[in-house]
Each structure stands twice: as structure tokens, then as C-alpha cells.
UniProtKB/TrEMBL annotation:
It comes from the Archaea. This is Luciferase-type oxidoreductase. GO terms for molecular function: monooxygenase activity; oxidoreductase activity, acting on paired donors, with incorporation or reduction of molecular oxygen. InterPro entries: Diverse_substr_monoxygenases, Lucif-like_OxRdtase_Rv2161c, Luciferase-like_dom, Luciferase-like_sf, Luciferase-type_oxidoreductase. Pfam families: Bac_luciferase. NCBIfam families: F420_Rv2161c, lucif_BA3436. Keywords: Flavoprotein, FMN, Monooxygenase, Oxidoreductase. Residues 32-238 form the Luciferase-like domain.
Length: 306
């Protein structure tokens, strides 16, 4: 059973008491055009300073306006290397690498490079993808994405673990004459399948180092967590949520797409309930006209109050 416990990023996120919090790029909120790198790094450093445990970059190879955004627009591998050079101990995550669209040798090498450059802080959310036009753009049959996802997960584990590996798949063949270097700081980089990734719950529980999911209503989330604990035991569960802090700390919640707008008092209770349900980590997309103030308000009201 794969474990990521030797990875520093995984330990930072999951081997602590209580719920931990990460912030998702772009921290400036600029997700349809190229964000200012200096502003993003300044906010990343501020997030680490005020108590966030993770910084998460998305993998959005192409911009599809119909879908609504392009993530942080920068490719996750050089971007997280840049972030690593400007931060100290905060975990660095992907949410999530679209495995069927990327060659597993490239993923293995790029991920291990970031892992080494960050002293073992990388945690990989991995996904099967959800932007339909990208599959023909990359010459991938979208109906094969579930099978490709499984194949690539197993291939990544092999390439990180074995020297001069022998493995064959739809991506190509290694016959033991070539090695893929560098190797990561631990035997494996932790892999968190994202959403269902077109896999069974049992497969995710057995093959993953945890499960990363999207925001769910609490009643639905309770059922998911019960099933997850039955299948995966103590492996961690992480989720993403949009959060907009109202000026009035007592404001009641308003539903947003994949999140809420509410006062800090409601959010304190909400995240307390998530912790009681068994959520281990939350990736927060903080909605605020002043991003730095939003990060600081969230940390003071939610993280420090935990």
C-alpha cells in the first residue's frame, strides 16, 4: 500500500492535529490572463508567514473560455520551482496534474525535480481531466482517460522507485537500458487522486496516498467520508472551497459556486464541522478585492482561532 509519510510536504499537511489550510493559486485572483508573478510570490510568502500549510497550483494546459478560467496560467512545474525558491517549509501541491494529457516520463522527471528543489515539499493531486477540447488537442481518446490514468499512476510509482526500470504501456516502453532521474526525496511523491478520476472508490483507496475532492454540501460530504474511511482507513481526505469573507462577521452564508460568502463567525463553525467530520486539509480560494487583506483576515479569524 503506497504511503507518502516520508515526504515533508505530506507530513506538513496531514501529520498534524486538526484541520490544515492551503491557499490556491492564483492568489491575486487573476485566472483569465497572466497574473503578476511578483505579486503572486509576495502573497505566497505572506500566506506562509500567517500560518497556511500549503500552496496549490493548478494544471490547465490550455485556456478554454467556456470553462471560465486558466488557473494560474503558468505551467505548474516551473511555477512551483519558482515558489519553492521564495518560501521555506510550506507544502507545495498540484490540484491537479491531468495525467492522461502528459507523458509519464515527463511527469516523473518534472515532479521529482520540483520535489528535490523544494527539499521534499511536493504533494501531487492527479486527475483524469474535465475539459473536453483538450483531449483531441493532445491526440488522446477521452474515452480512454480512466485507463490511462490508472496506467500512469502505476508507471510513476515504478519510475520513482526503480533504477533502470522495465515497463511498457500505451505511452511507450522502457527496457532497462534507461533510468529516469532525479529520484524524489522519498520512495514516492504522494499522489492524491482528484474527484473520482474515473476510478472506483476502492481503487483510489488502495492506490492513492489520500483523496482530493471538490466542495460538497455537508450532507453529501458526510456520506463520502464514511465510505472513504471504510475503504481507506486513516488515509487523508482534502477538499477545495471558495471562501468570501463578508465585512460583517455575523453575516449568514450565501451559496457561491463551489463555496460560500459568509461572516467569519459562520466560517469558524463551518470549518470546525469539517474537522469533526474528518476532513484533513482544505484548499481555500479566498475571494477579496484586496488579496493580501483577504489572506490576513482568513488567517486571523480561522487559522489562528483553530
Amino acid at each position: 500500500m503506497p504511503t507518502g509519510h516520508e515526504n515533508e510536504g505530506y507530513r506538513r499537511l496531514f501529520e498534524t492535529d486538526g484541520l490544515t489550510f492551503g491557499a490556491g493559486f492564483p492568489l491575486t485572483g487573476t485566472n483569465r490572463s497572466t497574473p503578476d508573478p511578483e505579486a503572486e510570490i509576495r502573497l505566497a510568502k505572506r500566506a506562509e508567514a500567517v500560518g497556511f500549510d500549503g500552496l496549490w497550483a493548478r494544471d490547465v494546459p490550455t485556456y478554454w473560455p467556456k470553462f471560465g478560467d486558466a488557473g494560474q496560467t503558468f505551467d505548474p512545474w516551473p511555477w512551483l520551482s519558482h515558489v519553492a525558491a521564495h518560501t521555506d517549509g510550506i507544502a507545495l501541491g498540484t490540484s491537479s496534474i491531468v495525467l492522461p494529457l502528459r507523458h509519464p516520463i515527463h511527469v516523473a522527471k518534472s515532479a521529482a525535480t520540483v520535489d528535490r528543489l523544494s527539499d521534499g515539499r511536493l504533494v501531487l493531486g492527479v486527475a483524469s481531466g474535465d475539459r473536453d477540447p483538450e483531449y483531441p488537442a493532445f491526440g488522446v481518446d477521452r474515452d480512454e482517460r480512466g485507463a490511462l490514468f490508472r496506467e500512469h499512476v502505476e508507471t510513476l510509482r515504478t519510475l520513482w522507485r526503480d533504477e533502470f526500470p522495465e515497463r511498457e504501456g500505451r505511452w511507450g516502453r522502457l527496457d532497462g537500458a534507461l533510468d529516469v532521474v532525479p529520484k524524489p526525496t522519498a520512495e514516492t511523491i504522494p499522489l492524491l487522486p482528484t474527484g473520482n478520476a474515473r476510478q472506483s472508490r476502492e481503487w483510489i483507496a488502495e492506490r492513492g496516498d489520500g483523496w482530493l475532492f471538490y466542495h460538497l454540501p455537508e450532507r453529501t460530504l458526510t456520506g463520502y467520508l464514511d465510505d472513504w474511511r471504510e475503504a481507506a482507513g486513516e488515509k487523508p481526505f482534502a477538499m477545495a472551497i471558495r471562501a468570501e469573507l463578508a465585512d460583517d462577521p455575523t453575516a449568514d452564508p450565501e451559496q457561491l459556486h463551489l463555496g460560500y460568502r459568509a461572516g467569519t463567525e459562520w466560517f469558524q463553525d463551518y470549518f470546525g464541522r469539517l474537522a469533526e467530520l474528518g476532513v484533513d486539509h482544505v484548499i481555500v480560494s479566498i475571494e477579496n478585492d484586496d488579496p493580501e487583506r483577504g489572506i490576513e483576515r482568513f488567517a486571523a479569524a480561522i487559522i489562528d482561532a483553530d
